[in-house]
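Quick one, T. Sequence first:
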Amino acid sequence: MMETTNQPSRRPAVALLGTGTMGSGMAQRMLDLGFPVNVWNRNPGPVTALTEHGATARETPTDAVAAAEIVVTMLPNADAVADVMLRGGTLDALRANATWAQMGTIGFEATERLAAEVARRRPDVMFVDAPVSGSREPARNGRLLILASGPDRSHDSVDAVFAALGQRTLWLGRAGTASRLKLVLNAWLAFEIEAAAEASALAERLGVPYAVLADAVVGGPLASATASAKLAKMERGDYSADFSLEWALKDLDLALAASGAETTPVVMAIAERWRRLVAQGHGHFDISAARLGLDPGPQTNYPGIRPPIRMYDHTNG
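Structure tokens:
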């Protein structure tokens, strides 16, 4: 594994296909840094906002990629990628020696099929499997973790784009390897979010105020920064999407398809609960909406816990 953290030195022409929550943030980041960016999306709404930010909108994906050195796909699933890039003829429209960075989470099997198809149809094009770990704000601020796998000769071609979008890039080997790791990380993320949601519900049932719970876990070993941030969103009832519940469920289903319930029984349990929330119409909410549906039930007669009075800090004697 090789890790890079360098900043972009050159700014190649980029085509970004798929301007949803993540794609829009990535496009804005590159535009802020002076990259020329063509954008395309099935729904023109996000594209309009990006043109006001300096992007060039294209009516078709083939138009968007025609002059691009780097093509980034940030589409919702494997079928959408295949529809746009293969069945829609976009792969054939790439310029000679272009690089295609597939950065959405579509699973390793679909990714490996794409890599094989590129090698067969466009051997001059470099295919890079590069899913990202992070949500809307990290995408917007260049703080993503980029998990990259593909041919060694592709590293230099995508270096400027990856340096713009990510605080770190991990190069992991052949295409498909990065997508395997991404499923592991997203399963881990699901554990943390569900833990925060259920701890929040349990605390409410037992009369533990949010401020006390937060004070007990912040800065300690029990909760990551992500879990603490989502716990705060749950407390506020703020479910505005940074990473939507429906896409998180899609990623869990990919992990389950790859592993089976025998390997990941807790992933299956979380997925089934989240599936019910999505079916109830909560899928477009943030992943912090995992708190919904966890009714703490009737309150106990316990009067509740008051915030502690800090007499001294043990760490300072």
